[in-house]
Structures are given as structure tokens and as C-alpha cells.
Amino acid sequence: MDAEYFLSVGREAIWVLALASAPIVIPALLAGLILGMVQAATSIQEQTLTFVPKLIVTGFSLVIFGGMIIGLLGDFTTSIFERIPEIVR
Which GO molecular function annotation, any one, does this entry have (predicted)? Predict the structure, then answer.
């Protein structure tokens, strides 16, 4: 085993992490940005006003993209387990 093998596994893990978290984080970020702009324009500084819509957007994103995320993580886990014999050599 050389360092390149472990670097490639780490690189793939970071890429899978980015692909799995982006469908949840990006809509929540956009909802927070839009609500923050509305709050700034209307001078309403209520903290709970931003929490509930972001929670709803996050839940909706999980419903839509949850299957894709589980499939992505399952494929990555399967590929890691298939690589175990290569490590033993």
C-alpha cells in the first residue's frame, strides 16, 4: 500500500461528503439569505422568524433528496468494503 491509495480514498470520501450535504445545505442557505434580506428591509429582528422556514426547507429537501443521499452513501460504503482485500495485501 502506498500513500496514493489512501489519498484517493480520502479524496473520494470528501467528494461524497460534499455531494451528500449540498442538497440540504444549499436550500437552507438560500432560505436564510432571502429571509435575512426580508428582515433587513422590514426591520423585523425576530430570531424565530428565520428558524421555522429554514427547518421546513431542510425537511422538504430531505424528503426530495433523501433517497439519492442514501444511495450515494450506500455505494460509497460498498466500494470501501470491496477495497478491504487490497489493503491486506
Answer: hydrolase activity
